[in-house]
Fold:
Amino acid sequence: MLHTLLRSPLLWLTVIGLGLAAVLPLWVSGYILGLLTVAYYFGVFSMAWDLLFGFAGEVNFGPTFLIGLGAYSAGILNGHGVPIALCLAAGAAAAVIGGVVLALPALRVRGPYFGLTTVVAVLILQNLIVVFAETTGGEIGLTVPDVISIDAATNYWIALGFMTVSGLILFAIATSPVGLILQASGQDPVEAGALGFNVAKHKLAAFCVSAVFSGLAGALLVFYMGTASVGTLVDVSVGVQVIIAAVLGGRRTIVGGVLGAVFLIAAGELLRPLGALSTFVVSAAALVVILFVPAGLLGLLTRQGQRA
Amino acid sequence: MTAAVLPHPLHPPVAARPLLAVEGLQKRYGGLVAVKSIGFAVRPGEILGLIGPNGSGKSTVMKLIMGLERPNAGSVRLDGTEIAGWPSHRVARAGIGLVFQHSRPLHRQTVLENIKLALLPDNLLRLIADPRVEAKARVIAERVGLGAVMDRRPATLPFADLRRMELAKAIARDPKVVLVDEPFAGLTQGEVADFSQLIRGFRDEGKAVLLVDHNVKSVAALVDRVLAMYLGERVAEGSAAEVMRNETVRRVYLGGAIETAARPQSAFSGEPLLKIEALDVLYGKAQALQGVSLHVHEGEFVSVVGLNGAGKTTLFNAVSGLVPYSGRIACGGEDLSRRTPAAIARSGIVQVPETRELFGEMSVRENLDLGGQHLPKAESARQLDWLLDLFPILRSRSGQMARTLSGGEQQMLTIARALMMRPRLLILDEPTLGLAPVILEQLSKALERLRQTTPITVLLGEQNVTFALPHADRVYVLEHARIVWEGTPDRFAAEAGTGYL
Structure:
């Protein structure tokens, strides 16, 4: 097991990548660090989403429901004087509770209906935020009194560290026996049940794990940016970005999500001179990858290793 | 397992008490009663065959026991515990295992890992596998004969090995009761012997075994007792020999003697509609077809007879343009080699694949309408009406979803859908695959009517000679990638019949 892991090109690519990322603040400007910080949090969103899609076989079209719950719970509590650490824990907890409330009934329905339920959940959350504008800041957004740090490098390292730890945990779960059962549940739920596995329980657990990381990352992002708004954290289009990042990076790879998120944000930035056209170009590029390289960027990188 | 070995002073001898006891089991789907008050018992170390033609409800009984469907009434007791209505994962943990006929294995994992999956506990906190699991999985893989392919991925395995893997998963769960769905479907003689041995292994371990299959013959050598079902009800129970002698069973199952009705060859003349010359197909290094030449005249009914793996499907796929080949295939004098599969289908060569490929979530009527998509409305309606007369059962099922039909009804629907396209040449690939004799006869009658009332041209591929001969004007025998015999059906028995009848 350890032997095969050590020989995996994926491991070494990841280690080299993380090493380079860790020393990056010595070379690049605060502006780029800021972009990457956001990209790393988005990477966690994507990795958490991949656990559901790639392994449990459930397409969650509303990752921002979980992210938004985490972000807004943390932000609102902080506004009432609760310290950041507690706010982060509360954000993760809120995402899990909301996730369970959503998933319990949603996992009963078959096929595409689960996905539809999750989209509706996002719309409801978005609506609630606007309706209860006094607490949530409504359409203008919520400003939090505290931030983790004002130093770009510190924020960058926190995001990198958080992403690394999240990735490790999610990857460990995905490759563990539980991950195997999850994959079986996703591929052939009837047979998984007949083998004695409670498919609903495993999928619900995957949803909870996905919620913890989405909620926590959402809360961290709020304390990095100092604000939370529907447009940046909850809107369906943000969720679509998360999904595109995960698929772009490579389904069922977990770590691919980070690659996809960095790619999306970097591409958006490089193409900024194109103005409104940049979104179109990035989306078109994403479409090409999804259509012609369904294994994703990571699949492309490790193909050599898999053949050997 | 140890409990069975220890002496039990308080209980009667283990062999006397049934491990699985089913009573008054009933299942309705809407108005259709699929299972009517079925009851039986299986003791430890006993193999019971649950037999019935397609649509008899035998598979439903199996699903009800496994918890994949909930019964409307009745009881299922496992070693004294009532389990009727439990979800499948609880039934599985209580000690019932099901060997699926088809499953979707984990494709990215190896065979060994697939077997390991079955050894895992249903526990969310078990993030590191028990090291003994690996060794156990290896032992099981060796036992079912997968020792050499343990580290390969399921997609690269032949069919028999995939079935071995399913068996391995059942063994891994160490259930008290094993349900096996069509144990020998699609297996060669040698493989059947292997599988029989493995299933006897279950009996020797004191497990109760339930084999679900179409006919008594295929499982007669293996079972201790047989329960025959028809239309949801029990029609007979007893030893395999007794059940085979039973009047009702014979009535349900027996087809008539083979009568051929070939039209004289002089009736078909001129340039053949389909002409295949020196066809070669290679799958990697394996020669799937070698120097095959055959022709079909307009209005002729030609059967290609051959066992599983002889190359029938490959032949039809080549005609439909689905596999690359060398040689010449011409339809109505035009070379097909440069046409796409879609263009070939549009030109009027319609293949009914053995896998059926119905739209399961659409109604019978919608499936048929899709087939008649390119026809003008009035003509499509006329064609539909004619087909529903040809297959009356489809008329009564027209609002039902296709996947809820029995296997025989699905086959009729597939053929009817192909006929909606008004083919010039209808290719039927193993339409009898998995069908019980009674359904076979209905299908046979429909084909007969089709042949008599229309000038249709048919190329039929069959393993079942009693089905392939009666309608054929001419017969080809395909054996190991080659055509080894050609002639009229009345000469078949004398010249090429050995091995088929």
Notes: Chain A is about 80% helix and 0% strand.
